[in-house]
Amino acid sequence: MKFCNDCKKLYADTDSVCTSCNKNLKEIKDINEPIMLCVVGGVERGALCGALRDAQIPFVERQHGRMGVSNELVTGYDAKLLNLEILVPYSALPKAYDIAKQLELCDDGMDSVIEQVKADVEKYKETMKADEAAPMSRKKRTTVKVLSALLFIIILALAIFGTDYVMELIKNLLGG
C-alpha cells in the first residue's frame, strides 16, 4: 500500500500521485504510520473518538483544511472543533474502519483496500516473528560477549581513574 505523507490518505500500489495535493506517494514501511481514517466534526467526532478510545485504538485529531478566526466569527462555532481528520496507525486501520463504518462515517468503497491492509499487517507481523525467533549464531554471540566485557572494563576503569582524579583536585583545592 502507498500513502501521501502530507494528506495521510491511503492509496493502492498502482497509484503514484495523491489526488488531493498532487504529491508523490510513498510506500508504507512502518505499520505504525498514521493514516487518515475519515474527516468528522461535531457529534460524529465525539462518537467516533469515544468508540476508538473504548476499543483502545490510538488516534490523533488534525485540523482539516484552512480554518481561522474569520470562520469562527461568522459561524459562531469553535474552529478547532469543525472538520477534524482522524488519524490512526496503519496496523489499527481495519479495526478503526469497522468502528467508523458502524457509526456510518465511512463509505463502503474502502472495503477492498482494508482487506489489503489486513494482509500487509499480517505479513509484517509474520516477518517480525521470524526475525525474533531466529537464533543468534555462535560467532555473533561470542563477539557480543567479548565486546560487552571490554565495554564493562573500560567503564569501570574510567570510574576508578575519574574518582582518583577528582579526589586529587579536591585535596589540592583544600591545601592537603
Topology, pairings included?
Elements: E1 2-3, E2 10-11, E3 26-27, E4 34-40, H1 42-54, E5 60-63, H2 69-75, E6 84-89, H3 93-102, H4 111-133, H5 138-174
Antiparallel strand pairs: 1-2, 1-3, 4-6, 5-6
Describe the protein in words.
By secondary structure, the chain is α+β, with helices and mostly antiparallel strands. The protein has 2 domains: about 35-135, no CATH class; about 135-175. The chain has helices at about 40-55, 70-75, 95-100, 110-135, 140-175; strands spanning about 1-5, 10, 25, 35-40, 60-65, 85-90. The chain has a 3-stranded antiparallel β-sheet, with no helix packed on it. About 15% of the residues are buried.
Q: Tell me the quaternary state.
A: single chain
List SSEs in N-to-C order: EEEEHEHEHHH
Proportion in helices? 40-55%
Report the count of strand segments. 6
- Based on helices, strands and strand pairing, what is the structural class? alpha+beta
Rounded average pLDDT: 84
Number of domains: 2
Largest sheet descriptor: 3 strands, antiparallel
Unreliable runs: none
Query: In which order are the strands of the major sheet placed?
Result: 2-1-3
* DSSP summary: helix tally: 5
- Terminus-to-terminus distance: 72 Å
The dominant shape is: elongated
As a percent range, the share of strand residues is 5-15%
Q: Whole-number radius of gyration? A: 27 Å
